[in-house]
C-alpha cells in the first residue's frame, strides 16, 4: 500500500483506504456519564437491576457502549455484576464500610499530601486555589449545589494525589472517592463551610511547601469528615 500527501493511504487499485474505523469511546463516555449521574442521584435506586438491553433502548444506542459503561461503573463500585444475573446498582454502604473507606484514606492521603507539598508545582497550587475559591464555594453552598461541591471535593483530593506522582494511589483513591460520593453531608448545617475550610488548610500547607503540616491538615480533615458522616447517620 502507498500513501500520498493529499490522498492518504491507497491500495494498488488506486482506491482510497481508511485503514481503521473510528473508535466508539466518545459514545461510551457519554453513556457512562449519564448512567453515573442517574446512580449518584438515586434516579436508579440502590440495588435496582440493570437490564442491558433496556438501557440500550432507553439511551438509543447499541449494547456495546452500555456494556463498556457498566464495566467502568463496576470498577467505580457503583454497580455490581453477579454470574447469570447481570448488573445491579450497588447497595448503599453501611456504617462499617464507610468507616473502612475512611481508614483507607487515612492511611493513604496524609502521606500523599506530604509528598505533594515537597515541591509543589505552581500550576497545581493554582488548580487547588481555583477549586477552593471562596466566592465560588459560598455561591454553591447558598444554591444548595451539593453535587457540584461533591465533584469539587473529588477533584481536590485527586489533584493532590496526582501531584504526589503515584498513579496507583491516584486510581485507587479516585475509585474510593467515587464510592463515597453518595455520603457527602454538605446539606447539613455548616458542614460544607467546615469541609472547605479544612481543604484550604491543606492547600496552604502545600503552598508553603510544608510536608508535615500538609499531612496533619489532611488527617484532621479526614477525621472530621468521618465524624460528620457518623453524626449524619446517627441522626
pLDDT < 50 runs, ≥5 residues = 1-23
What is the CATH H-level superfamily of the largest domain?
GntR ligand-binding domain-like
- Strand-pairing-aware structural class: mainly alpha
Mean pLDDT across all residues, rounded?
A: 87
CATH-scheme architecture of the largest domain: Up-down Bundle
**CATH class membership of the largest domain:** Mainly Alpha
Termini gap: 71 Å
Strand content: 5-15%
How are strands sequenced across the largest beta sheet?
3-5-4
The CATH topology annotation of the largest domain reads as Four Helix Bundle (Hemerythrin (Met), subunit A)
The largest pleated sheet is described as:
3 strands, antiparallel
What share of residues is helical? 55-70%
- Gyration radius, to the nearest Å? 22 Å
Describe the structure.
α1 packs across α3. The protein is globular. It is mainly alpha-helical. It has two domains: 2-89, Winged helix-like DNA-binding domain superfamily/Winged helix DNA-binding domain (Arc Repressor Mutant, subunit A, Orthogonal Bundle); 95-234, Four Helix Bundle (Hemerythrin (Met), subunit A) (Up-down Bundle). The protein has helices spanning 25-40, 52-59, 63-76, 95-116, 122-131, 134-143, 146-164, 167-180, 191-207, 211-234, and strands at residues 2-4, 8-10, 49-50, 79-82, 86-89. The longest helix is centred in the C-terminal third of the chain and has 24 residues, at 211-234. The strands form two sheets. It has a three-stranded antiparallel sheet with strand order 3-5-4.
